[in-house]
Amino acid sequence: MKNKFKILLTRKLHDFVLRELEKKYDVTVHSGKIPMPKKILMKKIQDKDGLICFPYDMIDSDIIKSGKKLKCISTYSVGFDHIDVKLAKKRRIKIGYTPEVLTDATADLTVTLILDVLRRVSEGDRMIREGRWKEIFGAYDYVGTDVKGKTIGILGMGRIGMAVAKRLYPFGVKIIYHNRNRLSKTREKSPHAKLVTINTLFKSSDIISIHIPYSKETHEIVDEKLLGKMKKSAFLVNTSRGKIINESNLIKALKQRKISGAALDVFRNEPIGKKHMFTKMENVVLVPHIGSSSKETREKMAEITMMNLKLGLDRKKLLYSV
Ligand code: DGY
C-alpha cells in the first residue's frame, strides 16, 4: 500500500475537518504553545508533505527550506503575508488561502467598530461596569457622533472594502475610496463611490477604514504624514493588518487628540497585553483580531483550508490559490 502523506497542523482545527483529514493522511496536530515555536516547527515540518497554518505562524524561508518534502501550504486566512510566497513558489509548493467566505463577517465587524467608536459603546460599557454611570446625566455629557452625513474613506476597495461601503451607504454617507485601480463605473455606482488620491482620502474623510493587504509596499503606509492630514474630528478603523499603520505615530496622534479616535482589530504585534498604550485610551475601541470570527464563517474557512490542502497534495487546482 502507498504510504500516506504526512501533514502538520500548527494548531487544532474543527473536529469535522480533522476527522476528514485523518481518513486520508497521517496527521500531526501541534498542541503546545501557540504560535508553534519556530524551532519545533522547523523540526516537525521536515518529513511533512502538507502544512495547515494560521496567520500567526511565520512560514518564512527557514521553515520552507526545512520542509524538504512540502507540496502544499494551506493557510486558514485570507491574508498570506506570513508566508514567504516567493520561495514557496520557487519550490513549486502550492499555497491555498480562504478569501470570499470571510468578506461578510469582516465587513460586519468593521461596521460594528465604526458604530462603536462613534457612539462610544464600549466606553459606555466600561463606565457602567466601573459604577460611573452617574457621571453622565448632563446634556453635553458623553455625546457621540452621528454616522449620517459623514464622508467614509475606504483605503483598498477590494471585496471587503466594497462590502463595507455597501453596508454604510444606506446610513446616508458619502463614500470615497483609494485603490490601485479605479473600479468599473458599474461597481462604483452601487455604493456611489468616488476614487480619490490617498492624500485626499485622509484629508476629506470623517471615518477612514483600512482594507488593503499587508506587504512590503504597504508597510506602515499610514504614517505621521498621512495621519497629520486627518481632520481632528476624524476616526481611523483597521480590520486589515496592524503593520499597515505606524503604531507609534497613531498613538501620538490619539494622545495629542490630533484625531478623534480609532477602532482596531489588528495590531503591530499580536496579541497585545493589558499594559499596551491603546488600553489606556478611552477613544480607542479594541478587539482581538476577530474579523472572520463567526461560527459560520470559521466553519467555511476550515472546509476550504482542508479542500485546498487535499487538492494541493493531489497536484490539482486549489479552490483558492495564492
Ligand atoms: C485573515 O483571514 O487574514 C484574517 O485577518 C483573520 O485572521
Verbal overview:
Helix 1 (15-24) links the parallel strand 1 (6-9) and strand 2. This protein is α/β, with parallel strands linked by helices. It is globular and about 75 Å long. The chain folds into two domains: 6-101 and 296-313, Rossmann fold; 103-286, Rossmann fold. The protein is built from twelve helices and twelve strands. The site of (2R)-2,3-dihydroxypropanoic acid has 7 residues, from loops.
CATH topology title of the largest domain: Rossmann fold
Rg over CA atoms = 22 Å
Low-confidence stretches: none
Q: Quaternary arrangement of the chains shown?
A: single chain
Largest beta sheet: what is the strand line-up?
Answer: 8-7-6-9-10-11-12
Overall 3D form:
globular
* Discrete helix count: 12
Helix proportion: 25-40%
Amount of beta strand: 5-15%
What composes the largest sheet? 7 strands, parallel
Q: At the fourth CATH level, what is the homologous superfamily of the largest domain?
A: NAD(P)-binding Rossmann-like Domain
* CATH A-level architecture of the largest domain: 3-Layer(aba) Sandwich
Give the overall average pLDDT: 97
Order of helices and strands: EHEHEHEHEHHEHEHEHEHEHEEH
Euclidean distance between termini CA atoms = 33 Å
| Number of separate domains | 2
Bound molecules: (2R)-2,3-dihydroxypropanoic acid
What's the count of strands? 12
Q: What structural class do you assign from the helix and strand content?
A: alpha/beta
CATH class call of the largest domain: Alpha Beta
